[in-house]
Design goal:
It is built from no helices and 18 strands. It is mostly beta strands. It is globular, with a radius of gyration of 17 Å. The strands form five sheets. The chain has a four-stranded antiparallel beta sheet, with no helix packed on it. It has a four-stranded antiparallel beta sheet with strand order 8-9-10-11, with no helix packed on it. Strands 12-13-14-15 form a four-stranded antiparallel beta sheet, with no helix packed on it. β16 (155-160) and β17 (166-171) form a beta hairpin. The protein has strands at 2-5, 10-14, 21-24, 30-35, 42-46, 51-54, 62-63, 71-76, 82-87, 92-96, 102-106, 113-118, 124-129, 133-138, 144-149, 155-160, 166-171, 176-180. 0% of the residues lie in helices and 46% in strands. The two termini are 32 Å apart.
Length: 203
């Protein structure tokens, strides 16, 4: 199943050899799309602040409560039970994928959230912003477990390695990097004696 969104709020998807289908999904641009592990369910987010899930039908299976502002990106957990959204208010929101109920809001990254994702076991989540910083939180209680400036310019991608020991980041500066975990804790930044260096910077 291949899916894409456009600047006027439409979703287009292609399943197998079937002809592409198009439908109106949002008021304004579609800002993020993802496909559930079942290969049948689509999640979309839009500049209208809405998150919706779809099957291959012309109406959404679920329309979640609106966010206070445009949603720039969306990510799902491996098991499909949780969703993450990032917005231009510097907040990452954890949602129940069934009904869109807000589980927890994660704050602390100023500016716009430009990348986010779950750990393989969903115990932690990571986000990056348009100022080149990343922050890692515990999913269960919202505690900050690490924060670091990793790129010059916006962070364009983040991924916590399944081994739980590494973080991969990419940036608008044209590099991607692999970092050893844990990152410095946000509360201990002033006590850090040496700035962490990536174990594999790649240009």
């Amino acid at each position: 199943l291949l899916v894409r969104g456009d600047a006027v709020g439409r979703l287009e998807w292609t399943a197998g050899d079937a002809k592409p289908r198009t439908l109106g999904a949002h008021v304004g641009p579609v800002t993020a799309v993802s496909v559930f592990p079942d290969g049948k369910t689509i999640i979309s987010a839009g500049a209208d602040g809405r998150v919706r899930t779809w099957t291959q039908k012309p109406a959404p299976t679920t329309s979640f409560p609106a966010h206070p502002g445009p949603i720039g990106l969306i990510a799902r957990s491996i098991d499909g039970k949780r969703l993450l959204t990032g917005s231009n208010d510097g907040k990452v929101r954890l949602l129940d994928a069934t009904d869109g109920k807000l589980v927890r809001t994660f704050e602390g990254l100023p500016g716009t959230i430009t990348a986010t994702g779950f750990a393989h076991n969903t115990a932690q989540l990571v986000a990056g912003n348009n100022q080149g910083k990343v922050r890692i939180w515990n999913t269960a209680d919202g505690a900050v477990v690490g924060e670091l400036a990793v790129h010059t310019g916006a962070v364009t991608g983040v991924a916590l390695h399944p081994d739980g020991k590494r973080l991969i980041t990419s940036g608008a500066d044209g590099t991607w990097k692999v970092w050893t975990l844990p990152l410095p804790g946000a509360a201990k930044k002033a006590d850090a004696k040496k700035k962490p260096e990536p174990i594999k910077p790649v240009v």
